[in-house]
Write the structure tokens for this entry.
Amino acid sequence: MQYKDYYQTLGVSREATADEIKKAYRKLARKFHPDLSKEPGAEARMKEVNEAYAVLSDPEKRAAYDALGRGYRPGEEFRPPPDWDANFEFSGHGFGEAADFSDFFAELFGRMGGRRREGPFARREAHFEARGEDHYAKIVLDLEDAWRGATRQITLRVPRLDATGRVVLDTRTLDVQIPKGVREGQLIRLAGQGSPGLGAGPPGDLLLEVHFRPHDRFKVSGRDLLVDLPVAPWEAALGAVVPVPLPDGSTLKVRIPAGAQSGSQLVVRGKGIPGNPPGDLELTLRVVLPAADTPRARELYEQMARELRFDPRAGSGG
Amino acid sequence: MQDRDVLVGTLLEDTCLTLEQLARACAVEREWVIEHVREGLLPAPGESPELWRFGSRELWRARQMLRFERDFEAVPELAALVADLLEEVEALRERLRRAGFE
């Protein structure tokens, strides 16, 4: 386990006051806010910052951390001596917090009432029970998975009390079957896969929020699928039936009405992401011109120029 | 510890979370949710707390507000205002995507 310098994470000195620590934290919380930050790895940095703040903003934890960590450098191999925390009483949070933070944090502060159990409240705690906390995570799927369903592997860090009452973090890998017809932003619930309950309390749930990885061709809006459809000039002018490949590998034949233009939109109802109701397929036509790179192609363009009397700028004042 | 059973997820529809479920998913007391709904900061279709049902949008919004209240000690109204602006930014980004600009 590597030593973490929480002061360095927040960019404050070891003598920083509580106010300075709070100020530094807020500055970084703004900088790395996951919804707005353009910084690379903002979410991971925010977790580190939260962990550092959880320790340095709590006088009990900060005192223990200071007493223990003197002389260590960040990244240095670190092993706390047994019973190092005998003189500290942590009144902090429980399982949920430990799951979000590092092994280093769990090792130092992840004790949930282990000693208190031997104290005056032992009797009450023996009967204490509570439902475990829900966990919330984002999952990124391929668009194709919405058609076919998918099985995805999810790795979770699950806090568990060991025999001495300390929290240890287990790594738990779940194979999760994602149902067909899932859409962006939808929640998937895995009953009983959150934190374990306390006492006889039931475990919490795991909630997964679905996001799709950007697709080369398709854009997604709810269950609607948006795609550019390249067409030849004569297909747009004369009308045509053209094949449109869908993310599931199937092909849909779509009729282009005569007189369509580049940028024209066609909506095929019910052919977006399956579901109840299914989404629509929205096609934006893009007329692609053949290159005039052979004598025959040039001849055809010249013939059109002579015979069609077409002015694309008519009415534009140009 | 390894657990490799294949678990089947349940898709939650748009308005499906009860007050208790939303509170649990945000790790807050149900009173926090009730107060925010009563103050008009969190939308909740349904007349009484027992009938309130929340969807993933409300869950996202509640978690955002909670973060602003906790990280910046923002008053709930300010946290809601920031959540409003984030929702608007997201809606504009969505329009950009649909228009092919992103």
